[in-house]
Each structure stands twice: as C-alpha cells, then as structure tokens.
Amino acid sequence: MNHTPIFRPYEFGEKEKALLDRDGHFLLPGILTPGACKRLMSSFLHIQDLLPSAVEGHKPTHFAAEYDSYLESLIPHPQILDLARRVLGEEIRFDHCVTMIRPGGNAGAGWHSHEYADDDPNLGFVRIFFYVSGFEVGDGGLKALPGSHLFRDANIKAETDEALKTGWMAGKTHPMTGEPLEIQELSVPAGTVILMWTHAAHAVSPRRANSGTRWAVVYAYRNPGRPSRARWLTPEFERKRIPGAEGLMSLY
Ligand SMILES: O=C(O)CCC(=O)C(=O)O
Ligand SMILES: [Fe+2]
Asked: Fewest Cβ atoms closer than 10 Å to its Cβ: which of 84, 146, 180, 244?
C-alpha cells in the first residue's frame, strides 16, 4: 500500500467542516507535498500520452486510475481516505478519478452541478480536487456559488455568469444564511486541494492562450446507497484487488 505522505499537515476539523457545509467548497491551499506533485505530474504525462490511441467510451482521462498505477495507488491512500471520512463519515465508497488537464487556450467549462441522491441529504458525495498547478482568476480558475449545493439540484446549467444570474440564481438566497447568492472566483497556489460537495454549482474560466497547462485530478467519494452516474469504472476494475481498497470499490 502507498503510505508515502501526500499532504502536509493541515486543519480540517469541525470548524472547517461547518464552512464546507455552508459554502459547498473548502480550500486547502498548497497542502500537496512536492513529492506528490512530482508523481502526479508523471501520471498526467502518462495519461496524456495515451490519449491519441484512446477508444471511444473509455477515455484514459475519465478512467484515469485504470490507466496509471500511481493514480490507482491513491484510491485507498490513508490521507485521502481520512479526509474523505472527515467529510462523509465512516461509510464511504470510491466513485471516480478523472484528470482535468487544461492546456493554454482551453475553453474552460460552463456552470453545472452533478448528481447523487438528489432527494436524500443524508447521502453525501464529495469531490477532492488536486490542483497540482495553481490558477488565477480568469485563467483556468474554478468558480463556485456558495450555498448552491444545499438545493441538491443536479441540473444547474448556464454558459455564462450572466446567464446563471438571470436564470437559476434569480430570486434565490442562501438557504442557511439568507444572504443573496454570490459567484466566487477562486485563485489558488500550486499544490492546492479543494473539497466540493457534488451538488455545488461550479464553472471553470478559460485558460489564457499564453498560460501553461493546468494540471489537475479529482478523486470522488460518496456514502453508498444510490447509483452514481459519474462512476466511471469498469466491472474489471471494480473487481481488481487494490491493496487497501477492499470494501471501497463496490457501488453499494
Ligand atoms: O477542471 C476543473 O477545475 C473542474 C472540472 C469539473 O467541473 C469537474 O471535475 O467536475
Ligand atoms: Fe464539474
């Protein structure tokens, strides 16, 4: 099992969990160790090399851990599982591992949210984003909408901030604070981990043409109980014996 530390010491206790639950996301700036960043970079380059020969429906980017042994070894990494359990509680399953490689000029992504047990707030689903490259506002940067996760709406969609404001956001306030909803453009240093509840509305600004590639990967975990649409793993991979991942790979 891979026990090499990948996170520096960081705080994520009750106070931080309460902020995650209020906002829908939580930043852990620069906590990835240089060693982990280096290993992740070789995995990204490996995944990138496989893309030209990718088969339809089974992209190395979407099934990243199936194509790279280091990415696979992180699924049961004790520090990731510990963080996932601080968010979700003891009973968790692995859901997916997807690389998010955005070269200079990449178009980014419009506003969207993701599904999981939309009608049952007791079943959580958290994305753990590893931003090996950092990002600035307006340059491959993640944008968030604090409070949006509390609606558990898996179908939030808008091409632009304006369309989100006049569309989905119109007339809504933060269910916990009563404040108007407000778009937040994030900016983080290299080696940052971001936690995000799956129903949180998010978008990615275009990467500037003269910026380097933004290298990132997401590991997602959830409480078992429902089917999951984002669970990109093959039946073979589900059955594979990954040391330390016993009990984590099944749907339920
Ligand atoms: O590329 C990113 O920063 C986020 C991509 C995204 O929307 C996701 O992984 O759910
Ligand atoms: Fe997303």
From this structure: 180
Cα-trace Rg, the chain: 17
Any alpha helices (H) in 51-136, and if so which ranges?
64-67, 69-74, 78-88
Q: Say what the pTM is.
A: 0.98
CA 140 to ligand 1: nearest atom: 3
Q: Answer yes or no: is pLDDT of 247 > 90.
A: yes
Q: How confident is the model at residue 55 (pLDDT cuts 50, 70, 90)?
A: confident
Ligand 1 nearest-atom number relative to CA 142: 3
Q: Say if 246 falls within a structural domain.
A: no
Q: Is the pLDDT of residue 3 over 90?
A: no
Q: State the residue range of the domain holding 200.
A: 15-51+59-128+135-239
Domains identified in the chain, total number: 1
Phi, psi angles (nearest 5°) of residue 40: -65, -40
| CATH classification at residue 30 | 2.60.120.620
User: What average pLDDT does the segment 24-52 reach?
Assistant: 97
pLDDT in tens, 118-159: 999 999 999 999 999 999 999 999 999 999 999 999 999 999
Distance of CA 121 to the CA centre of its chain: 19
249 occurs within a structural domain:
no
Q: Which residues pair with 192 in a beta bridge?
A: 131
